[in-house]
């Protein structure tokens, strides 16, 4: 009896996870063949008169999400004139990064490895994102 109950709950959970939002998600999801700034051109008509764009990620530190953020920042900057990038980090750590971006420092490796409290910003992809800014 216990096995049957566990099996039933597993099946119920599996079906409920699958049915959460797939049909709705398909209405709004847009796939990418490659992660390039030009891939975001579908946003052009939606960005008229928009001054703030929020970007969230499913996981922190994943290479693909950092590449996506980097290309999105490039697209927003080049095509729509966005110039401010807000990062989820501590104030002091953010100040070091801001100084680098503003040209007041030239030691990005030191900033990321010695003044940063989280591993997710010590990746090759994040390094490239900051260099692009």
TrEMBL record:
<dbReference type="InterPro" id="IPR007815">
    <property type="entry name" value="Emycin_Estase"/>
</dbReference>
<keyword id="KW-0732">Signal</keyword>
<dbReference type="Pfam" id="PF05139">
    <property type="entry name" value="Erythro_esteras"/>
</dbReference>
<dbReference type="GO" id="GO:0046677">
    <property type="term" value="P:response to antibiotic"/>
</dbReference>
<feature type="signal peptide">
    <location>
        <begin position="1"/>
        <end position="19"/>
    </location>
</feature>
<dbReference type="InterPro" id="IPR052036">
    <property type="entry name" value="Hydrolase/PRTase-associated"/>
</dbReference>
<protein>
    <recommendedName>
        <fullName>Erythromycin esterase</fullName>
    </recommendedName>
</protein>
């Amino acid at each position: 009896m216990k096995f049957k109950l566990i099996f039933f709950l597993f099946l119920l959970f599996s079906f409920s996870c699958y049915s959460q939002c797939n049909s709705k998600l398909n209405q709004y999801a847009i796939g990418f063949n490659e992660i390039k700034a030009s891939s975001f051109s579908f946003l052009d008509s939606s960005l008229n008169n928009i001054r703030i764009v929020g970007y969230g990620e499913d996981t922190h530190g994943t290479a693909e999400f950092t590449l996506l953020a980097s290309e999105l920042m490039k697209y927003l900057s080049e095509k729509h004139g966005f110039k401010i990038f807000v990062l989820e980090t501590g104030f002091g750590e953010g100040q070091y990064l801001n100084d680098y971006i503003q040209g007041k420092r030239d030691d990005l490796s030191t900033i990321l490895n010695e003044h940063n409290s989280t591993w997710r910003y010590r990746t090759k992809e994040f390094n490239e994102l900051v260099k692009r800014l």
